Amino acid sequence: MISSSKWIGPAVLAGMCLLPLPLGIYPQHVLIVSLFYVMMAASWNLLAGYTGQVSFGHAAMAGIGAYTSGILAAKAGVNPWVGVAAGTLLAALLGLGLGALCLKMGGIYLSLTTLAFSQILHIIIVNEYEVTRGTMGLQVPGLTAEYSKLTYYYILLAATVLVLFILYRMIHSNLGLSFRAVQNDETAARAVGVRVLHLRVLAFTVASAMAGFAGGLYGHYLLLITPEIPSLDLQFYVLAMTVIGGMGSFVGPIVGAFAINILAEKIRDYGEYHVLVFGLIALVVARFAPEGLTGVWRSLGRRRTP
Amino acid sequence: MNRKRTGIAIGLVLALAFCGAAAAQDTVKIGVVGPRTGPAAATGAAFDEGIKLAVDYVNGKGGVLGKKLEVAFEDTAGAPDKAASGFERLVTRDKVVMVLGESHSSSALAQIEVANRLKVPFVVVEAWADEITAKNYRYVFRAGPSNSGVVNQTIAQWVKAETFKRAYVIAENTDWGIGIGKLTENALAKAGIPYESMITERNSQDHYVELTKIKAFKPDVVLAYIYGVGLHYFVAQAGETGVSPKAVVLDGAGPPSLWPDYWKNVGDYGDLECFVSSMHEKVELTPLAKYFREAYTKKFGKAPTDYKSRSIFDGILIAADAINRAKATDAEKLVEALEKTNLETTRGTAKFGLTKGGPEYHQWMPPMLVIQWQNKQQVVLYPTQAATGKLKR
Amino acid sequence: MLAISVMNGLVMGVIYALAALGVSLVVGIMNVINFAHGELYILAGYFSFLFASVLGLPVAPAMALAVALVFLFGLLIERLLIRPTYGNDMYSLILTFILSIVLQNAFLLIFGPYPNKPPLWVRGASDIFGLFSYGNQRLAALLSGAVLIAAVFLLIQKTWFGRIVRATSQDRGMAEWNGVNTTRLNMLSFGLGCALAAAAGVILSPVFPVTPTAGVPIALTAFVVVVLGGMGSLWGCVVGGLLLGLVENLGAAFVSSGYKNVFGFIILILVLLIRPAGLFGRAKL
């Protein structure tokens, strides 16, 4: 069984590489959006699932990435790839700042501060419409000269693999053990010499950078950036995907992001109820199965193979 | 173990999800985009009515290319991102041959990029920003008002005809609002009428501070470009703060003053308000307009009010006519057919401009009216030759 | 300009204070932030619209019924969602955040996207000392909001329920030791918190009609007021609410109306930086 875990990663990756080839343009689009949400949910999970910091500013960080890169490209003609790098960096810096600001407070105060940050950003974007075009949406160039869904799919797949690889290494290192220690018992962790505050700030910076990176790429895929990226609605999707998939589990957000996005497409056939349906699913899962779908799956497996 | 199971689970979910069905095609499908939710959701309802009547009309006359015409209506929520992705969904998933509709300029500006990229003909019916046609995209047409058309042919002319002395321009923060606000300022400056202007948030519920600023300027006309229920708050609060009836308030979009909730939301302050519209029972330009009124009353058991139901009706007639003349659903042939359109609609004969370089390209501007609520009755004020009464203040 | 902005600030301030009182009560006793507070405000507005405009009940009973129903709904939420998470304040935050989105979308499905407006209590506008003309309904909202706040203070300061509430929010362990049934107290105070949101909702919805998402800014403002005044401090809510109402409206008049709502959030971050306990809070986190 141990050997099987070695080939499962490459096998899934190979499958993901082949997956879009037989599909039409529209399913390819759904996959690309799902990959964006995998990056968002997986990095938010680092905060909420591993260090116990429920941030409501993760979508705002994606907005920072998207708007930085978008404005640079649309107004100053900067190469989109350079712009994405700049957006990632700015999100990392803001994450560092916010993380440091919230050092002394924990829990609810951190949630409220990140919420305030996200609202301030939203208001600025809407009001400075001469630069951001506010709710009208900013048209931005694509990442490649020729627009092709398949190219975007592979770009986002590569980005997702990169993000997941970094997260995996972080979680499965000594650092990851310390993260868990911080989440479970702050005082005890401090007693054994874990530098709680540094860890929190580090997690905040890395997760924000990842959200900025994902947002930057996503903006250049959509070709249109609106305040819907740094919105509470997008924040809700990220949270719901993580909760449904399984908070504090590495595969949880990945499963959650794909399941929710594909489910959304199925529900869309019956009308615009998908947000209500996810909300109800998320509520039931959060209340009765706090470890999410992967938790349920795991406990089923445990029952079958004693 | 866990990871393996999860891997299989992901695979299963993905496989299941894409077992979509491909239906057999014995219809010709066109797409409509418009806001069914958001601040102007009532426009979606108006579009819905217009679509039903148009589909009945077209299919009653033999359909298109010997098949039945079918319409897929996608909600854009008045949000450009949803509009662009909805447009793309219509084309890539529902395989529509042509798209029409839209009522928000910012949404339309996002959609024309998609239309151009996917090479699908797109007939805008009620998004007014000049840029939509001024970009001169081959696949983009507009069978409906443009900002410059509405301002220069109707609103500015009406302001001059009523000899207003001081004007205040308040415009929402969208492509339509900012664009039409700017054009109005230019027209007022040219006519030598003193004015001031401000930009407002289209979803704002509280306009007291802005109205206090407006009151201080002492205007005798307020040109309000707020599309959505925001206009109702503005009109009611203009009454409460005493800006109206000293100043006449003009709703520069039109439909909000005609929505079912208008009187409920504005109360008595709604009387004597003016608005632009392209529909009034006393001003029916073609036999088709009469047909529309009768068919509408028969089908929905009430008289038509929101003129945008008729705009989409015209749009679908134009689309069906183009498909029939092109004898194909191929995009290039459809564009050529649209360019040769010469069709009698409810608002006159539709014909698209072909001179490149400005907003007149691929544009047909139907005539607009200025109407005033007088004791809850619609009285046409402008154009003067069609007027059914005089401005009351 | 100054006069009317101050007046607007007072009206909004009273409503903010009322909405924040509900949040503060729940935070003080249960250490739970109810993210769906704004949606309960909206729910009460819808109920009030439904009973008065659709079923034709007189305005006052319609409003009372709306508040009572939201109170019961609050009890239900506490029982089903909050109680099992007790002690894990992050989890209750996540649950109520999801609940708020669920409610918004349920409203959209049931009531549609249009604003719904319960009937006005009074029509027309009044001339205020010759300074400006002001909507009568807004004046009525100011007055009834102030009366309700006074009633809440009486309840907390003068009744045995209030004594228990104060005792529990000061020292939960001691209160339990003295025989307070904290489970029932949690349920009651959560319901009361929701009822206060509902009261704010029925008072303000004739002025600002309710839409499915209109509760979000109300809830966010209530959180700002609670942090500004100090978590769990009732006086803090009143002072914080009025202060925020005034700052927002003066800011809108003299700085920028587009940035009206940004002032509150900037205040929030400043307070958290400089004095996390808030204006009237005890220094505990």
Describe the SSE topology.
The complex is a heterotrimer of chains A (306), B (393) and C (285).
Chain A: H1 4-18, H2 25-50, H3 58-76, H4 80-101, H5 107-127, H6 129-132, E1 138-139, H7 149-171, H8 174-184, H9 186-191, H10 196-222, E2 224-225, H11 232-245, H12 252-268, H13 274-288, H14 292-304
Antiparallel strand pairs in A: 1-2
Helix pairs in contact in A: 2-7, 2-10, 2-11, 2-12, 3-4, 3-5, 3-10, 4-10, 7-10, 11-12, 11-13, 11-14, 12-13
Chain B: H1 2-17, E1 27-34, H2 42-60, E2 68-75, H3 80-92, E3 99-101, H4 105-118, E4 122-124, H5 131-134, E5 140-143, H6 147-161, E6 167-172, H7 175-191, E7 195-200, H8 208-217, E8 221-225, H9 230-240, E9 248-251, H10 262-266, E10 274-277, H11 287-300, H12 308-326, H13 331-339, E11 343-345, E12 348-350, E13 363-364, E14 369-374, E15 377-382
Parallel strand pairs in B: 1-2, 1-3, 3-4, 4-5, 5-13, 6-7, 6-8, 8-9, 9-10
Antiparallel strand pairs in B: 10-14, 11-12, 14-15
Chain C: H1 2-30, H2 37-54, H3 59-82, H4 89-111, E1 125-128, E2 132-135, H5 136-158, H6 160-170, H7 172-177, H8 182-204, H9 215-229, H10 234-254, H11 262-274
Antiparallel strand pairs in C: 1-2
Helix pairs in contact in C: 1-5, 1-8, 1-9, 1-10, 2-3, 2-4, 2-8, 2-9, 3-8, 5-6, 5-8, 9-10, 9-11
